[in-house]
Amino acid sequence: MPRGRNRRSAAAAAADAVARPLALALALVSTLPRAAHSQDLAPPPLRPPGLRATTCDNVPEPFGSRRNETLPGFVVICGPNREAMLSIGEHEYRIDSVSVQGSYVVIFAEPITQVCYDGKGKPTPDTGTGGPKSLDGTPFTFSKSNKLVNFGCNRTLVANFFNLPGDPIPLYTASCTTTCYTPNPNISRSCIGEACCEASMDLNGAKAFSLSFEGTTTANGTGDGEEDGTCSAAFFLDKDEPVFNFSGDEVRPLKKALSPQRARRMILDWAIGSTTCDRAQSYTFDSLCKYGYGTCVDAPSGAGYLCKCPDGYDGNPYDRDGCQERVVSQGDGRGDRRRQPKPHRHSPSPAAVATI
């Protein structure tokens, strides 16, 4: 399985310039604590027909593996099987898919924090962490298309998200509380409080966060958040992806469900530069967008800009001649399959854009 840990990853997964995969599932772990069972974890589904694995050979612009031809922050590292990975901080994250139209990238990231306990309630050695904690210095921000999962017994998770590390006032706060009411509780698929809860992320644009936990007291007197033979973890997850693969109203014993978590799919939004289209354009005579007739739009977060194909065209505005004329129906249901790129204009070098 993929890992976010230093220079470690796995085989590539899905999709070049397509919409974010829905209901994608857990990456299985090969080693589980006692009484844990791998069938309770959701395996990744089969790749939909027609979708390609994202590799160093087909990763779409503005991403690329050639450092001198790629914008800073969008350079991917090639794994042993040509899988495309992003370097963020001290870790590398395998890319699952990139959406050019949506301006986001889906990566596999391990938990932010995780502690597993043996049968006597003692913490075991590190079981895999490495999820991104800061995106400062990158073109990425934490997307509100994620949820923050609090996984374990009797604890309240509080996450403060900031525009930049060191900011005194958070952009917003996400919080949720888990409980375990009996010595041998069960857990449901819903993840709505019984040993598992989800905190929504209300805004885009955050580049850093702080995480804290508070223990809670339950009816059986337990308040330390530790369950023998289970794990406690916090991790980002695509909000359309289930935490567990239970069906319907089915419940499972807690000690079978709270297994070590490995890499999960999470979403990062991206933008070019750190200023608006108008200000960025004032620094150069070149077109901001590589596809000269494309449209520059301000990023939703307010920092940086994005490129869009003009009306009537689809494709990748960051790629040379990437915007193709949209198919127009001929009235017989077949459609006109001829697509003509518009003329290409000169584009700024990566170095020029990096200073904007």
From TrEMBL:
<dbReference type="InterPro" id="IPR000742">
    <property type="entry name" value="EGF"/>
</dbReference>
<feature type="signal peptide">
    <location>
        <begin position="1"/>
        <end position="38"/>
    </location>
</feature>
<keyword id="KW-0732">Signal</keyword>
<feature type="compositionally biased region" description="Basic residues">
    <location>
        <begin position="336"/>
        <end position="347"/>
    </location>
</feature>
<feature type="region of interest" description="Disordered">
    <location>
        <begin position="327"/>
        <end position="356"/>
    </location>
</feature>
<protein>
    <submittedName>
        <fullName>Wall-associated kinase</fullName>
    </submittedName>
</protein>
<keyword id="KW-0418">Kinase</keyword>
<keyword id="KW-0808">Transferase</keyword>
<feature type="domain" description="EGF-like">
    <location>
        <begin position="276"/>
        <end position="324"/>
    </location>
</feature>
<dbReference type="GO" id="GO:0016301">
    <property type="term" value="F:kinase activity"/>
</dbReference>
